[in-house]
Amino acid sequence: RLAGPGRGKTIRFAVSGACGLLALGSKENAATLPLFVALYEWFFFQDLSLAWVRDNARKLALAGAAGAVLAVVYLAGAGWANMVQDYEQHGFTMVQRVMTEWRVVVLYLSLFVFPHPSRLSVAHDIPLSHGLVTPPSTLAAALFLLALFAGAVALARRERFLSFAVLWLLGNLVVESSVIGLDLVFEHRMYLPMALLPPAAAVFLFRWVPKKTVAAAFLCVLIAVFGAWTIQRNAVWKSAEALWTDAVQKAPGLAVPHNNLAAAYYNQGRYALAAEQYNQTLALDPDNLLALYNLGVLYHQAGRPDLAADCLQKALAVQPGYMDALNELGVVYLDAGLLDKAEDTFRRALAINPDSAPAYANLGVVLMRMGRVKDAVQAEFEAIQIDPEYVDAQVNMAVTLIAWGRPADAEKHLRKALEIDPGNIRAKKNLGFLLLAHLGRPREAADLFLEILEADPGNRDALFGLKQVEKVTAG
């Protein structure tokens, strides 16, 4: 803006425009950037001149119309459909969200002023506003924000920077704190809007505190306190468990923190605690797909196929085309020996998604168990055709080919599986027994069993395989 006329100014302007487009491609919030470029020009270069607004009214109107057209194009496409889906998923209306966001913005401002770690959370449980006075804080928040905006406008000439900082704050919250059907509260939505608040606060402080040394000392104390609080808050982010435990304690009525804490416990192998949190999630949100699916997986691992099937069927009742739930339910039936139900489930999955390699691979195992070896080979072939890098399908095909009396072909598939995943224990185990029992190569088999024991010292199959190698070589 301050560059002299010439080629350099044009290049810099073009680069700035490109950066703006890249920003818009990175985050929708950048849609407000042209507005604030114009507002900055008017505030700090044109001295709030109404004559400048009149002279450029046509350009400003065209820019506003272009923005409106882009918004309409966005909403007319997938944007509107996504918004409708978001509102249905969250269970609140657009009007309820807008009114609630008035209180949320006030919450954001209070967190900026007093960011004690006890008030900060990755999840906030804020009740919906169903009307202007339900709760009463809705109207109070609306009046406060209106007064804040009016004050910024009224003081624009006298307090130019403070006014712009307030307008920057409110304007940059519009995208995520208005009509779009997002989650109600996220602290990180203040990152960009609050960018001008610290310097504005410093300007205000040094302007109104008579002694500059007192103002500077106060700022130093404030920085030290906020720094200590930052370090304290960072401790919560040291692990997923710590983060979501903190969120559960601060927002026990929200399903998402319970669900995410359950996932943290699951990843640690603490399955009982994970199941407890998944059940708590479902108590708050009975149709939570992830919780239903993950709890089904946990019950399956715990040897409770009845409970596992119940959770997975509930997930499928919510979303009939949920492929992960269909595949897991089929495996539950397979492990429980309910082969007919397992076959039917995997075929349901393939009817929804004919390109599902896991569904074909699992169907092959079912057909193999049913003694339909040729059909099993065809199912595993389909899985491999869809995804040649799918290790389970390669191993399943090898097991099926062994039963069909084709050990040489089985070895090729097992070698391929180990080429894809050199550490795959299941592939090594099956290759070891194939080499030992069908191909007469016990030394190679022994090497594979030893590799398995190096990775898993207590592996019973590998220990048994070594004993069989000793018997064969001794004989």
Protein described:
The chain contains 23 helices and no strands. The model has no long low-confidence stretch (mean pLDDT 93). The chain has 475 residues and is an all-alpha fold.
Please specify the SSE layout and strand pairing.
Blueprint: H1 7-26, H2 33-45, H3 50-55, H4 57-90, H5 94-113, H6 137-154, H7 160-173, H8 197-208, H9 212-234, H10 240-250, H11 255-267, H12 271-284, H13 289-301, H14 305-318, H15 323-335, H16 339-352, H17 357-369, H18 373-386, H19 391-403, H20 407-420, H21 425-437, H22 442-455, H23 460-474
> Could you say which overall geometry the principal axes of the C-alpha atoms support?
elongated
Helix and strand content put the structural class at: mainly alpha
Stretches where pLDDT is under 50 for at least 5 consecutive residues are none
Q: What share of residues is helical? A: over 70%
Number of helices: 23
Largest sheet: none
**What Rg is obtained from the alpha carbons, in whole angstroms?**
32 Å
What fraction of the residues are assigned to beta strands by DSSP?
A: under 5%
Tally the beta strands: 0
Distance between the termini: 90 Å
Q: What's the helix-strand series?
A: HHHHHHHHHHHHHHHHHHHHHHH
- Average the pLDDT over all residues and give the rounded result: 93
Write out key terms for the chains shown.
single chain; 475 residues; mainly alpha; 73% helix
Compact overview of the structure:
The chain has 475 residues and is an all-alpha fold. Helix 10 packs antiparallel against helix 11, helix 13 runs antiparallel to helix 14 and helix 18 packs antiparallel against helix 19.
